[in-house]
Amino acid sequence: MQKNLCKKYREFDKEWICLINQMMMEVAPTTDLVYQGICTLFHNTNPREKEKASKWLEEFQKSIYSWTIADELLQQKRDLHSCYFAAQTMRNKIQNSFNELPPSSHESLRDSLITHIGQITIDTDNIIVTQLCLALADLSLLMASWKQPILDLLDMLSPQPQSMWPLLEILTLIPEEMDSRYLRLGANRREEVHLQLEAAAPKVMEYLCMCMHVSETNQEKILNATLRCYSTWVAIHAIRLQQSAQNPLTQQVFKLLSMESTSRKLHETATECMCALLSTSLDPQFKLQIFNCICMLEPAYHNSVGTEDIDKTMNYCRIFTVLCEAFFFEMLQSDDMPHYSIKGLDLVLICVGHFDYEVAEITFNLWYSLSEELFQRNNDTLTAHFKPHIERLLGALYRLAQMESDQEGLLDENDSFSDFRRKVSDLIKDVAFIVGSGACFKQMFLLLQSPGTTWESTESALFIMQNVAKNIIPDENEIIPKVVEAILNLTDKTHIAVRYTSIMLLGELCDWIENHPETLQAVLDFLLCSLQQKNGLAAAAAIALTSICSSCRQKMTCHIFGLVNIAGSLDSFEINNDLAIGLLKGISLILSRLPRNQLETAMREIIRFQLEPLAELVKSGPVTVVCKGERTDPAYWVDRACAVIRHTNPDVSTEEIHPTLQILNETWPLISQIMDKYQTDVRVMERTCRLIRYGVRMVRKQASLLVEPLINQMVCLYTLHHHSCFLYLGSVFVDEFAKVDECINGLLAMLKAFIEPTFKMLQVENGLKNNPDTVDDFFRLCSRFIDCCPLPFLQSALVTPIFQCALLACTLDHREANSSVMKFFCNLLKWGRSNNYRLSECKPLVVEIAQQNGEALVMNLVHASVFCLHSYMLPDVAEVLTELKAVVTSEQMESYLKTALDALPRKNSGGYVTATQLQLDEFCNTVMRATAPKSVTVALKTFTRLFR
Asked: What superkingdom heads the lineage (predicted)?
């Protein structure tokens, strides 16, 4: 039979491939042809033919014909794959292409889906059931003419025992899909649906209770589906909870959580349900009841620990944590008498004491929130209530952060335990102030003094100390001197993990070392010795030395020659390039404190270490494959040079020749050669532009001799390769040189040269979407022109096409790119304000631009806000609207707004109202009355929810 089936598929393949090579999707395909495509996709062993089938079926799903053919395939039930494809197609079409259907066909689609769902049996594949139920759930939300979908489905499907499972699935999915980003129901429709759900809730509860009783004598699958459904209805507040403690479903949840025999899947569902109950607004009496009931789960937690059922243990931990989050503000409401709910933290801390660190990690967000709230309130009496809990937390973290006793070397930075320790580090830094960093440090020091302390407990204590060391007052003289002395006397026989953490602790004590200069020499000797180790300690020594260089800049100047030698020997140390760059940064900060003659000599030497290998690469012949991060990668050396130039900031007056100017001028020919040789490599170009940027920022206007050759080379290379980093570098030049009159024409010529290749790239299909970095950097460049030389820019012929391009870019949903576009509009419009008396010649130019383009600008901004942009991007739009209001008259602004609002669809494809005339008028009036961008932002967010 299998051979005959394979033969059948091969015959289908030949026929289907022949047909698709002859047809286009403009012609309606037959059901058989689509079925043959499905067979090819799932059964053909030829990857090329499978790919062809996949692409063709993808196009088919987008076509109008897929509605009827998917329906036919579901009726025919030929095999699993065709049924799944059909169900998935139906769901996809309803979610994304519902507007293709005329309203007259909505009822027939609904009836067809209900018929298919009515034929589901217990043996039907889960994936098919989910897709069909999701399709019907989405249809019920989109179809405005279906007034009582929940009650209708209950009436039609509840009498059929075999439909219990799919009906529960649909009832679960409807509330879940209300906020689907695909459906874009809008606030009005969601409110309407929510009222439908509230009205249907009693019937739904009655049905769920019936399903629960049936499941007691039938199967766990139904009970699981029942509780999942209850959970979703509770989560959206569709079920009133006043009597929830006595509700049979709530009681069943507690029963399942209390029983040792509950299966893991049911236990997970019961946990979800309990968390949903806790996340709703509960009256005080019910909150007390549920608090007491959850406290009674403590024995069940201990039982799960005893039976080593880690899944259940994590579920209980989650419940206890969500319980504390539900009572979060009650716990903090009084600084006199602690609220009863503070006992919930004891349950959480029991879980933090579990040996598996993944259990403790569940609680971390709770501790973050608690520490942030206590820090903001700054109430010592209130904070004292939580001090014992944080002390217990730190004790538990000390135990959890301990390595295995048989660990021989250092931890692998990429394993899960290292990731956990990084999270512990962040948490300790957040909560330490509650008990006091000094007290925490002392507590760990006393642990180090305990007799019989193992290496792993020693390392963990040092690890905790490392994370609070920065916050200890620098003049502490009781404990830290002993700790530093002990670290400096560590021997090679000490476990390497202890030595590693000790070195990291020294780095965190940099402020204390700066305040105790008598220890500096010994610390530097110790770190230099560690830096030369080949066992992994060099990385810790590099980090610690970087911190000490940053904190002890003035006191480290006498060590500059030793540091220059370190800079020249970086590649002899067992450290990666990022750590080498960090060391160069620390050394450069000290360079800035040197006298002028020493500075130039030392910097020239350090720069030479980076440029000589670069020069060799330039001379080495044609470019071969660049191995990222290797010594043959030019970016490897450019990044190092960047670190030196960026962080060397000597105090030089504007009249004084910058001590590094000569170095920069001497370096320019090599930089130019790098740009020519590696012009196709965007990564190398970005790094090189960054190097130039820091160089120019360092010497500022004294770099004017480099501007012309740099611009010429940039324009030439940008025309060829469109690297957006050249646009960004151009904005740096504008920032530094646009206030020099003789440079303005050259800078405008640069902008003009950039415009043609930029617009050519952005005007192709999806050009804006595919090149967000170019959009970001181009409009950043234009904004710099407006900031630095507004009048020449506004008087040029370039401003109109740039403004038109910005109008098109309004809809781009890339955060940085869109922000730059909005910033451009704001910066330009500011010069047209009625109260702007700076450069009054700019005002009429901006007013003219605003009057010519105001209507299009508002139209695009409103359209983008409603259909394209994320909610967090709307404050930028609000700023533009506010600036435009200050330029045009109130009558003009109101007219622009009304035109834009009239262009929006009043009804969705499902037939329901998106925005009423009252809501449109309210938005318009709010924007017109607003005196600050914040009010416009609130209005925009409220308004756009009507369409989302």
From this structure: Eukaryota
